[in-house]
Structure prediction request, 247 residues.
Amino acid sequence: MSSSLWFMIALMGIATVLFVYMGRGVEDPRVRTIFVATIGIPAVSLASYFGLASGLTIGVVDIAGRGEVVAMWGRYLTWTFSTPLILLALGLLVGSDRPTLFAAIAFDIGMCVTGLAAALTRQAVWMRWVWFGISSAFFLVVVYVLLVEWPRDAAVQGDDVESLFGLLRTLTVVLWFGYPIVWALGTEGLAVVGTGVGATAITSWAYSLLDVGAKFVFAVLLLRFLADEPASVTRRQPTGAQSPTED
Prediction:
């Protein structure tokens, strides 16, 4: 388990430095804001993973009728602070209106907090699954924004933004679905691979590999595009405005 944590500490440390370097010459306010939000993703993750590696944010939950399970609750802290930054960056990229952006971030935070409740509940196994269901419901609202609302906004911004958003949206939705699947099958849920040290390590590596794609790969793709300050981003069009190519 510790190997996956130290791997992520090293990766997120390198990513933070790399992303700061990539944004050193950015001047456009909108692009700078997206850069700041994106740089915050590995920075927050670095601190949170160190909390896990140091044992500060890991505990043991004794679940009634099941026994003791290692709870890596520090991961939920990571997601609570980092995933809203991912959504903020995407929302700014496509020019989302504030109510939709607020809703996406609010339901995302709700998803993470109720996921933490699922991980820490010890009174009964069924209560853990109820929390898991609530968290999944919040998640579906976020998915709706990503798949329905923001593609409309992206189409207004230009072909390059629409193409990039399509890639980032697919990456985000696919990988984010991986987290509840790992929870359900891993040590915190059905414990398909057991609940011992080896099973905990497998679960930890699964979460870490999802983080590599959902955070590092996501950020590299986004910031490489923004580093040159493309006109389609710096020349922001209001959501719902008529495309310049339309009559």
Summary: Confidence is low (pLDDT under 50) at residues 236-247. DSSP finds eight helices and two strands in the chain. The first strand starts at residue 59 and ends at 63.
